[in-house]
Amino acid sequence: MDLRDSDAEAAFRTGLKTWLAKALRDLAQRPMPDDWPARRSYDAGWQRRLFDAGYAGIHWPAEYGGRGATPAEHLIFLEETERAVAPELGVNYVAQNHAGPTIIVEGTDEQRAHHLPAILRGEHVWCQGFSEPSSGSDLASLRTRAVPEGDDYVLTGQKIWTSNGHVADYCEILVRTDPEAPKHKGITWLIMPMDVPGIDVRPLRTIAGSTEFCELFLDGVRVPKSNRVGEENDGWRVANVTLSFERGTGLVQEIVRSVEIVRHLAALARQTPSGSATVWDDVGTRREIGHVAADLDACWSLARRNVSVGMRTGSFGFSGSILKARYGDAVHRLADLIMRVLDRAGLSLDDLGPLSTGRLLDQTFFAFMVSIAGGTTQIQRNIIAERVLGLPREPAWPST
User: Fold this and answer.
1) In angstroms, rounded to a whole number, what is the distance separating the alpha carbons of residues 175 and 146?
2) d(Cα 29, Cα 370) in Å, to the nearest integer?
3) d(CA 230, CA 236)
4) How far apart, in whole angstroms, are the C-alpha atoms of residue 138 and residue 375?
5) Average pLDDT over residues 272-286
6) Neighbour count for residue 149 (Cβ, 10 Å)
């Protein structure tokens, strides 16, 4: 198998690198983490630059405004933007990686025409209203109600871990439309505008000091039935389409970033004194860095396969769960190693010395997010065991 770039791929890579070098040269400094209006403006500005250059929604079909790039070109884009330290999707993450692809597959022509161009231009920010305080890993037990009333649904309930909810224009939200149906059967996927009456958004501060997570409190929120994606009570199936994108392509750039973090960690180890030598001179440390690098290389290979399959078939199936479980293990191992190499520097979120130790410490917090967001590692293993390997379901605990 020849894994080198083809002539067309090499030309695409060269053109992208040239554009990135020029675009990043005059890019303004990133705003402060808690300046959310500035962060939204910054992320929207970068998204517009991508759009104008033909790099927005690079893996989306051309008929829906994307570039229609091949899986190989998509991966080249992710590699080169990460290596150039280009801005991430930021507040555009849910729109680009979750809502947009779901609407492409499951939405109506009217929904596609209204939402997809605005997502690609960075004009509309989306958040996700799936998890609830009592329905995290067991997502299908959600209790937020949507009662039909005329041409609308009237929503009442609460959501949590709604990233960027305080700056979002729309929310992809799961609601219960049939409380009498089995829990997986009575769910509906809706597009909820965030500027309608009855929505109370409350940011939550994380262990890293950031406030991107939010709680949503819904009290009589009216959502038009025309905003339903898929059929009523078929939302669990549609949600799994969304989650397959989150676990399939949603992790690709994170894996590329983790590979770069390993290189960064190796460079730090070479420059960090340890007794009369350096941290890098310890054979055990070098071995562990090598093992983590190999784990992430395997994850990258699996991600490349998943992207190729997903772009060809439109679905990632259970391969996304396999990748997420494996990657979750790898980043926790990387986080433990980072803390051992940083030693006392791991007590500060700020950079210490010439290398960005703060970036490494941020990776340790990121590891916890990976093993929880989009379905915990335990849930992924249950999915793999039951739906891939065909093992029997775990017996329910007896009620007390």
Assistant:
1) 6
2) 27
3) 10
4) 9
5) 90
6) 11
Name 202's Cβ contacts closer than 8 Å, sequence gap at least 6. Answer: 214, 215, 217
Question: Is 180 among the residues known to form the active site?
Answer: no
List, for residues 287-343, the tens digit of each pLDDT value: 999 999 999 998 888 877 776 666 566 555 677 778 888 888 888 899 999 998 888
Of the listed ranges 73-77, 274-278, 372-376, the least confidently predicted one is: 372-376
Helices 283-313 and 319-342 cross at an angle (nearest 10°) of 150
SS3 61: coil
Residue 284 falls in which region: left (phi positive, over 0), alpha (psi -120 to 50) or beta:
alpha
Task: State the catalytic residue, choosing from 73, 79, 82, 246.
Answer: 246
**pLDDT, position 313:** 61
Contact by Cβ (8 Å): 292, 364: no
Residue carrying structure tokens 């555009």: 92
Q: Which residues of 60-92 are buried (b: 16+ CB within 10 A; e: fewer)?
A: bbeebbbbebbbbbbbbbbbbbbeeebbebbbb
For residue 128, list its beta bridge partners: 172
Tokens representing 147 are 């009662």
What sections of the chain are H helices per DSSP? Answer: 7-25, 36-53, 71-83, 93-94, 100-106, 109-120, 235-248, 252-271, 283-313, 319-342, 357-370, 377-383
Buried b / exposed e along 370-385 (16+ C-beta atoms within 10 A): bbbbbbbbebbebbbe
Helix (H, G, I), strand (E, B) or coil at 125: coil
Cα 296 to Cα 90, 324, 326: the distances in Å are 23, 12, 9
pLDDT greater than 70 at residue 371: yes
pTM, full prediction: 0.79
pLDDT > 70 fraction of the chain, expressed in percent and rounded: 91
Lowest mean pLDDT among 14-28, 233-247, 306-320, 335-349: 306-320
Nearest Cα neighbor of 48 from 92, 100, 14 is 92
